Amino acid sequence: MADYGSVIGWATLSVSGLLLGALLGLSGWFGHGTIARVTALGAGLVLAAASVELAAEAVATHPWSGIAALMGGAATFSAVNAWLAARGARDRKRCAQCLAGPTATVAPTSGAAITIGTAIDAVPEALVLGVTLHSVGVQPALIAAIAVGNLPEAMSASSGMLSTGRSRQWILALWGSVAAATVGLTAAGYATSSLLSEEAVLLLQAFGAGTLLSLVAETMLPEAAEESPKFGGLIAAAGFGLLLLIAELA
After folding, report:
1. Which domain holds residue 225?
2. CA nearest 121: which of 40, 51, 198, 216?
């Protein structure tokens, strides 16, 4: 079990990908192909973290309630994401080229919806990290998955928001606020875990895994698959395998 100082430190490391990704996305150095491939890598990492690091133990020890918690997490994220999509934040994680392409419906225009949607996307990983830091301790594989997964999300979203007229200052302020809130939520998840039973913690991890699976399916994979970049599936598999390797060696 970590202490609060290390919780803040690990949480800060996990959100570093958001800030770095925002800067890279705003730089204009990377086109859709690069962003899509990095997104595929991040998706593979997060999928492995959700299944191996979070859901597996809960389902192994509490099969029915574990699956129910997993599905509940997925349903919760999907419902919130659908609500946000109807209010102008459907494509909040798409890059500039994707928003200009034929598969885009309407560019994200609602500042409030984009802000809320971006913050909501960070909630599952923050709570999951806080819970696992208390119940299991430091899990390098999970922290790596979150940090690397955040990188392409912020790259793509920042590029897309800039193309729709958002200023660089607005975008950086958004990501800075999300990063700060994520660190706070991680600490809250850590504190909450001390009040829960072992079974409740496992089910909360399964719930978090469900939200992460929905997040990957609804916000990362569409970006990774846009225009079918070459070797996207292989890169996602490499991310999945990398997470397993980190978990084994840690």
Report:
1. 4-249
2. 216
Domain count within the chain: 1
Residue recorded with tokens 């992460």:
212
Over the stretch 140-162, which tens digit does the pLDDT of each residue have?
A: 888 888 888 888 878 878 887 88
pTM (2 decimals)?
0.81
User: Which pair of tokens denotes residue 67?
Assistant: 């699956």
Task: Give the 3-state secondary structure of 81-111.
Answer: HHHHHHHHHCCCCCCHHHHCCCCCCCCCCCH
Number of other CB atoms surrounding residue 63 within 10 Å: 10
On the question of pLDDT at 198 being above 60, the answer is yes
Start-end of H helices in the chain: 4-27, 32-48, 56-61, 63-84, 96-99, 111-135, 140-163, 168-193, 198-215, 221-225, 232-249
SS3 54: helix
Backbone angles phi, psi at 100, to 5 degrees: -90, -5
